[in-house]
Amino acid sequence: MPNRRDVFICETGPRDGLQILDTFVPTEVKCRLIDAIVEAGLPEVEVGSFVPAKVVPQFADIDAIVAHAQRHRGRTIVSALTPNLKGAENALKAGVDVVNFVISASEAHNQANVRRTVSEQLDGFRAVRAAVDAVSADKRPHLLGAISTSFGCSIAGRVSEKEVLRVATAYAEIGADEIALADTVGYGTPPLIKAIVSAVRREIGNRIPLRLHLHDTLGLGLANAAAGLEVGIRRFDAAVSGLGGCPFAPGARGNIVTEDLIFMLEEMGLKTGIDLEKLMATRAILVPHVAAHYLTGHLHEAGIPKALRKSA
Ligand code: ZN
């Protein structure tokens, strides 16, 4: 990675952004999107999910996408999500750099999402840890444990700190290389972000990196990112053009907008290592294939003010 970075951003648009669409984005377009994201300097791209094509047809081409993204090895980290062992085995076969496993803090959300209890899902994570450990050390991917609904749930409503800590502690014990706290439905608020992040940090210690995955459902996405920074978070997921949405709130905004997040961070004096103007160009790749209401972002609407542009 050529640039020194103060904050690490994983671009999740190709995964969390595209999974909600009911139209298939052609493989060639996904590849061009990933190429442009890497070209702009994103250090990690979550390129899709290893789930049955019957469940999420958007990722029917995941093997081809991972194979394409691997051309950028050395410049970016290729990650993919999976909710189960079968998917993790396929991700390992494909040779991803990061396997992103997911468990909901909310029992009701976990049931709705993967039809298993949280406890059964933790057993699944144990099996995935073993499968990853069976890979030779030089090829072994990083195993990220994501905790969905860490800041609220569209089914259960408020999620308690205890429920989040239960999963975080188990992840730490089983051996997650990193833990992501995900505001899956976007109910988080700055004080809640600070409280949960601090509680998880207290509980698991400093050894395991933490990242935040935020959605802008209620317009608090960047405020929540700023709150995360205040309690030590330096790793974020975000999506170009704010791709994504909330499956339980049709029409709601998606992930925090990568472009807007980078602008905020750089203005705060935090280096991201990302070329914002190049990243803005990803919008043109999306426009012909993604319905306009999914494409958001203040910088896209206002343009980067001339007076604030980096003279590079
Ligand atoms: Zn998400």
Which SSEs are present, and which pair or pack?
Elements: E1 8-11, H1 13-17, H2 27-39, E2 44-49, H3 62-69, E3 77-82, H4 85-94, E4 98-104, H5 107-114, H6 118-133, E5 142-148, H7 161-174, E6 178-182, H8 190-204, E7 210-213, H9 221-230, E8 235-238, H10 258-267, H11 276-280, H12 282-286, H13 298-302
Parallel strand pairs: 1-2, 1-8, 2-3, 3-4, 4-5, 5-6, 6-7, 7-8
Helix pairs in contact: 2-3, 4-6, 6-7, 7-8, 8-9
The chain binds zinc ion.
The site of zinc ion (ZN) has 6 residues, from loops.
Key descriptive features of the protein:
312 residues; alpha/beta; eight-stranded parallel β-barrel; 40% helix; 14% strand; binds zinc ion
Report what the structure shows.
- The chain has 312 residues and is an alpha/beta fold.
- Helices cover 40% and strands 14% of the residues.
- It has 13 helices and 8 strands.
- The chain has an 8-stranded parallel barrel with strand order 1-2-3-4-5-6-7-8, surrounded by 6 helices.
- Strand 3, helix 4 and strand 4 form a beta-alpha-beta unit.
- Helix 7 runs parallel beside helix 8.
- It is globular and about 50 Å long.
- The two termini are 18 Å apart.
- The model has no long low-confidence stretch (mean pLDDT 95).
- Zinc ion (ZN) binds next to loops.
> Strand arrangement, largest sheet?
1-2-3-4-5-6-7-8
| Number of beta-strand segments | 8
Q: Please provide the ordered H/E string of secondary-structure elements.
A: EHHEHEHEHHEHEHEHEHHHH
Main sheet attributes: strand count, strand direction, barrel closure = 8 strands, parallel, barrel
Bound molecules: zinc ion
Backbone shape: globular
Gap from first CA to last CA: 18 Å
Structural category is alpha/beta
* Estimated helix fraction: 25-40%
Percent in strands: 5-15%
Mean pLDDT: 95
What's the Cα radius of gyration? 18 Å
Task: Give the low-pLDDT segments.
Answer: none
User: What is the count of DSSP helices, taking H or I runs of 4+ residues?
Assistant: 13
